[in-house]
Amino acid sequence: MQLATGTGDPDPDVPLVALSDARVHFGAVRALDGVSLTVRPGECVGLVGHNGAGKSTAVNVINGGLTPTAGSVQYTMSDGSTGTGAQMARAAGIRSVFQELSLCPNLTVLENLRIPHRDLSGPGWRKRAARRISRTLDRIFPGHRIEPGMTVGDLTLAERQMVEIAAGFAEGKNSARLVILDEPTSSLDASIARQLLDQVRRFCAEGGAVIFISHMLGEVFDVATRIDVMKDGKIIASRPAGEFTQQGLIDAMGHVASEKTEALVAVQKAESFGEEVLRTPEGLSARRGEIVGLAGLAGHGQAETLARFFMSRSGGYGQIKEPEVAFVAGDRTRDGIMPLWSILRNLTLTHLPGLTRRTLVDRDEERALADDWKAKIGIRTGNMDNPILSLSGGNQQKVLFARALASSAPIVVMDDPMRGVDVGTKQEAYDRIRREAAAGRTFLWYSTETEEVCRCDRVFVFRTGRISAELSGDAINEENILAASFEMQEAAE
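Structure tokens predicted for Sugar ABC transporter ATP-binding protein:
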């Protein structure tokens, strides 16, 4: 009997992995509460749910990283035998690509490949690793410009995500048969994301299987053959993708997206803005109360422009007490969270000067601030004193978002701030951004999601470190953004 290898003709009736009443409890917290799930060759299972629904825990049970408190997980090998445990998961070809990238920044691309690909050893392993990762990158992301000898720490966030994805699909001693993709496009621009979605379809058509986790529901519908909805550690709905509508899927997740945002956008766009409050050497400008978007292919200078502007308006003594600009990091692991600190300390970090009384921090006021923003932005935790790493990636991002919005800074710089945030929370965040702008706060917003950029009042499209187009009003649409991303245009066009 031949099973899924990513090539050939696997038996579609034999599951590659089967969870039966799997439960994972951390003390009183039921992270997984009786999940039964199977994944068969040729399937692409869209796994959706709000932050904290249990998706990451389910993934860690499936890949063998977590042993369930109760229930079972079983893998089927390519020879038809079955087994359990992390070693059997690897032998069965279970691969994971996580939202929180696991690459070592001080190692090269090919050296990072050796960590999960344990057959890369002995004389000549570097050449074999270079060939392996290069072939996979070329196949999935043609035109990627990533060399195997590059140090990972020198790559952009999008390039690092591309490397991790390629490592998940790369050939090896145990070929990939089930690849788990957790928010795989969160750092990729639209064109690179389409390349990945094409790879997912090819891989499944060749007999492989994919578990696709994403808050970008359009992508889920593009590739999923089945959608499983999680809430509170349980699968509450499981149907063929064609039986869901996007709104029906949002309703099943337990949160109906707010419709107030669009109305607020229309009202604000009809109003005039205040005086100009910033202008950068690149030609980027913004007025008081304006939401300015930065668009274009990832890695074309948007993040660098934001970083230069932020550094030019922060760091001075007076700017610490009365900040001129607040920052929301997209790469939260590198630029945002303090991993050894609590949720509360991470949220209030930049507010300590204002919370200090006679050189001591007013802890009651600090806790009141944290509790207020926990409620406003919906941070899912029972205790703000828990470590920041106890939160899901999306909830960690909410903490960074709350840290910036709770400040008095008149300008907020956002570097792809919605990475890994669920659709319901995104709608609430869009609404809050628009309300803050209506009150006079200015936003610089870089996003890899075209839908988000199209919510802005004005958009600057970047290409090769320069502004290739300035769009406003009805000209802000996906077609114009893509055109400006691939061909230099005069700003006046």
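Confidence is low (pLDDT under 50) at residues 1-9, 255-270, 488-493.
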